[in-house]
Amino acid sequence: MMLAMSDASPSRSGTERSDRRPRALSGAQPTADSYHLGNYFGAFRQWVALQDEFEAFYFIPDLHAITVDYDPALLRERTYVAAAQMLASGVDPERSALFVQSHVPEHAQLAWVLNGITGFGEAGRMTQFKDKSSRSGTDNASVGLFTYPILMAADILVYQADKVPVGEDQRQHVELTRNLAQRFNHRFGETFTVPEAHIVKATAKIYDLQDPTSKMSGSNASHAGVVDLTDTPKQVAKKVRSAVTDSGSEIVYDPATKPGIANLLSIYSALTGRTIDDVVAEYEGQQYGHLKVALGDLLADFVGAFGDRTRELLDDKGELDRVLAAGAARAREVAAPTLELVYERSGFVRPA
Ligand code: TRP
User: Is the separation of the CB atoms in 352 and 25 below 8 Å?
Assistant: First the structure.
């Protein structure tokens, strides 16, 4: 009886792992009308690069988006824009599963199980929760915001993901995910792959054009220093021209003393694929203004083409829906067996 039971259980992460490609997984919240250049270089370009080596799962975390005040109609529209911008960035639905989180119910189902093995104090130590909840007072924060990192752990573990490309601000959440995976494995038997964070390199980090010591972010008070992927070429050229630069006039890469110029050089390098040294050499002896005009032109071309591609995708929502449905179907092929194994290990009687 005992033997028969373990034989009948679905494939374990341990045995399943040896004959598959390693898995990468990431998501980016649809909380603004558009993603920005920082998302593109800091996240999407890495996602695209990982598609060769990894079996990739990329998704739009709409369940996470409802943990703060939000507008349903806006969320719906932003979810489509998010999908179109991920595709325009080069996420290839033939190779990677691109989907909407709420299309795969196993995320929420696994999150509930993980809630049961997460300590209240452990969750309370998450710095992003502390930051976000302190803005309007902890009493006004939703319980969803508190358990947000546990849903994120479920996002990752339900796919047995090996690598999780994220920004530095998400490192602690991946650390929590690792702890929960190990804890579950220890208590209930080997079930989850313990994932690793894949933090983007400093040169792929883009800072606010008006405040080059804080990262480019959709939640920055002013968008004057944020290049949105829906900006027009004209808007972008203007934002670059008005970028804050540093005292002095020499074009050198020194993030500590010249964060403004360093940021422009990073963007230039990221956009052209040339090394920063190479770009610095080209502009040797020239003024900041020369660099700004050249970068403004390059970025204007980039957002122009990116915007065209995004609009094309958004013009055919039927096709977008089909791509997302296929992505969710592929995702569920992996998520469902994981959840089944988790339920079994948890002692839930399975429906006959
Ligand atoms: N919390 C992430 C962010 O704000 C988004 C996210 C949700 C995510 N689930 C994830 C990222 C799983 C990586 C893996 O950027």
Answer: no
Q: Is 177 in the pocket of ligand 1 (CB under 6 A)?
A: no
* Three-state secondary-structure class, residue 240: helix
CA of 28 to the centre of ligand 1 (A): 6
Which residue's entry shows tokens 């998400």?
Answer: 170
Cα–Cα distance between 229 and 205 in angstroms, integer?
A: 16
pLDDT tens for 43-99 read 999 999 999 999 999 999 999 999 999 999 999 999 999 999 999 999 999 999 999
Q: Which of 152, 95, 107 is nearest to 128 (CA)?
A: 152
Predicted model pTM: 0.92
Largest CA distance in the chain: 80
Q: In what helix (H) or strand (E) does residue 46 lie, and over which residues does it extend?
A: helix 45-50
Question: How far is Cα 201 from Cα 180, in angstroms, rounded to an integer?
Answer: 26
Phi/psi at 251 (5° precision)? -85, 100
Asked if residue 164 has its Cβ within 6 Å of ligand 1, the reply is yes
Ligand 1 atom with minimal separation from the 148 CA: 1
H or E segment and range at residue 55: strand 55-60
Q: Measured between alpha carbons, how far is residue 112 from residues 48, 104, 234, 305, 317 in Å?
A: 31, 14, 47, 42, 32
- Token couple for 45: 């370009």
Burial class (CB in 10 A: 0-12, 13-18, 19+), 335: buried
82 lines ligand 1 (CB under 6 A): no
**Residue 286 C-alpha to ligand 1 middle, in angstroms?**
41
Query: What are the pLDDT digits (tens) for 15-41?
Result: 456 678 999 999 999 988 999 999 999
The helix (run of H) or strand (run of E) holding residue 308 is helix 288-315
**CA 19 to each of CA 13, 141, 283: distance values in angstroms, whole numbers, following the listed order:** 11, 44, 50
